[in-house]
Design goal:
Blueprint: E1 5-8, H1 12-23, E2 28-32, E3 39-41, H2 47-52, E4 60-63, H3 68-81, E5 86-90, H4 96-102, E6 107-109, H5 111-124, H6 126-137, E7 141-147, E8 170-176, E9 179-182, E10 195-201, H7 202-212, E11 215-218
Parallel strand pairs: 1-2, 1-4, 2-3, 4-5, 5-6
Antiparallel strand pairs: 7-10, 7-11, 8-9, 8-10
């Protein structure tokens, strides 16, 4: 297996990540101490276990373990075994986020920080908070990315020419060279390497990806 995603930790967050990857048809491997059906049983802090999960050929590793110190160690080990791998980590403590970035993490998310911001939105902008909550808990609606490749039918077309809206999805923004273009204009010409941030039903996003030749992955 090559270009896959490794999920370390199969608790609540790990399961949700695995479900999202399954819907997006992203190849992935799960590592957890307790094992289970389709799970590699073992400690993700072990070089042997990560090699068994194909760390050297993986594109991404998602660390969703329950201990931040373990997450730092796994991050360091993953970067050692595969310097080019993208590392996404869940941090339980705000103070751990800095340590994880220093360990080489590309993205660190704290459920407590996110929850705090949503609570603030619920007070200040209740309509926005309700929209975010509906998207978050809905099994049908999700926010995802469509990656524009050279072979994709999206490459070289204006956004208005893609007919993505015909598939029932809406483009919220476009990432181009790590810069976000929010609410992109219809005349924006899409280039290979662009990533479209879209919202819609899961099956509609998958179908749009298939019909255009774009690669999809959840956010």
């Amino acid at each position: 297996m090559k270009g896959h995603t490794i999920i370390c930790g199969y608790g609540y967050n790990g399961r949700k990540i695995a479900e999202a990857l399954c819907r997006a048809e992203v190849e992935h491997v799960i590592v957890d101490l307790r094992g289970g059906e389709g799970v590699i049983q073992g400690d993700a802090k072990s070089e042997e276990v990560l090699r068994k999960a194909g760390i050297e050929h993986a594109k991404e590793i998602v660390i969703a373990v329950s201990n931040d110190e373990d997450a730092v160690f796994i991050c360091l080990l993953a970067k050692k075994l595969n310097p080019g791998i993208r590392v996404v980590v869940k941090a339980d403590r705000l103070a751990s986020m800095r340590h994880l970035y220093l360990a080489g993490a590309d993205r660190v998310f704290s459920p407590y920080v996110i929850a705090g911001r949503l609570l603030a939105k619920a007070v200040i902008k209740p309509g926005v908070a309700e929209f975010i909550q509906r998207v978050t808990i809905s099994r049908d609606i999700e926010i995802s990315q469509l990656a524009v490749t050279r072979s994709s039918k999206l490459a070289g077309k204006k956004l208005s020419e893609t007919e993505l809206s015909r598939h029932g999805i809406t483009v919220l923004g476009v990432y181009r060279e790590k810069e976000l273009i929010p609410s992109p204009p219809p005349e924006l010409v899409l280039h290979p390497g662009d990533h479209l941030v879209v919202i819609g039903k899961s099956e509609d996003i998958v179908e749009a990806a298939r019909s255009t030749g774009a690669k999809t992955r959840p956010i």
